[in-house]
Amino acid sequence: MSSAIKTQDLVYFYRGAEGETPQTVLKGINLEIEEGSFVAVLGHNGSGKSTLAKLMNAVLLPEGGSVYAYGMDTADETLMLEIRRQVGMVFQNPDNQIVSNVVEEDVAFAPENLGIPPEEIRKRVDGALKAVGMYEFRKHAPHLLSGGQKQRIAIAGVLAMLPKCIVFDEPTAMLDPQGRSDVLRIIKKINREQGVTVVLITHHMNETIDADRLIVMSDGAVVMDGAPREVFTHVEELDALGLAVPETTQLLYALNQKGFDLPLSAIAVDECADAICGALNQRALSRRTGNAPKSED
């Protein structure tokens, strides 16, 4: 499978005032994100994850190393427009992306600026709004919508450009639980049904469970990289980084500390419940046959 985003020895630092030492944010990142995949990037504040997101579609440019979007070098200014057509970006504050007073006009804004014919724009706008469940609000004023609805409009505006990849930079950070759930459902749908490559930047571990791949960042470096159910088995290592694991993994880990032998990879709620029920049933059977294992109370 071909790569959507590739970084090679990527370095980025923020320059301070004259005479101040630059703050290095990314330290030689080497990553390759496969086309069509759903990749989550997890890290605490200051880990470098949002800076990495902005480098993926040339909002920022590397201070060292390279970033390639579908084979295009983001440092090549002549390719910037095409890179941003292929790699869309959704930020955490939807108000920063909404530019019009009517929902459908806002979604049409980017395609119009790309010179897309009006009949094609109409088709794209309707399709994008239906994809995020906001078609019935197409004549509404965006500022009257809820935070979650605004974020869905922001996503529709990016979808209307027909990108191959969308980078979501903490898109649920400003939303309530219902808005967060709606946006995550749409993100997964875009990836599964439309085949759009998704890169989700977040510090909420529960948002990463359904990703194909989880990249954990700390202090400007990649410290873990693998399937979520594998990464989350490293409970103590993640805790040392200031990151919690999903509640299911926390429960399984706590029970194992009491003498159980449960798989920490059972991160889905139903998997976790099945594992615990199976272990309890086995213990009950062992007690009846006089072979119960010893455990702490």
Summarize the structure.
With 297 residues, the chain is α/β, with parallel strands linked by helices. Helices cover 38% and strands 22% of the residues. The chain has helices spanning 49-56, 80-86, 103-113, 118-131, 147-159, 177-194, 228-231, 235-240, 247-257, 269-289; strands spanning 3-14, 23-34, 38-42, 64-69, 72-73, 87-90, 165-169, 197-202, 213-218, 221-226.
Secondary structure topology:
Layout: E1 3-14, E2 23-34, E3 38-42, H1 49-56, E4 64-69, E5 72-73, H2 80-86, E6 87-90, H3 103-113, H4 118-131, H5 147-159, E7 165-169, H6 177-194, E8 197-202, E9 213-218, E10 221-226, H7 228-231, H8 235-240, H9 247-257, H10 269-289
Parallel strand pairs: 3-8, 3-9, 6-7, 7-8
Antiparallel strand pairs: 1-2, 1-4, 4-5, 9-10
Provide a descriptive summary of the structure in words.
- The protein contains ten helices and ten strands.
- The model has no long low-confidence stretch (mean pLDDT 92).
- The longest helix has 21 residues, at 269-289.
- It is α/β, with parallel strands linked by helices and 297 residues long.
- 38% of the residues lie in helices and 22% in strands.
- The chain has a six-stranded mixed β-sheet, sandwiched between helices. Strands 2-1-4-5 form a four-stranded antiparallel β-sheet, covered by helices on one side.
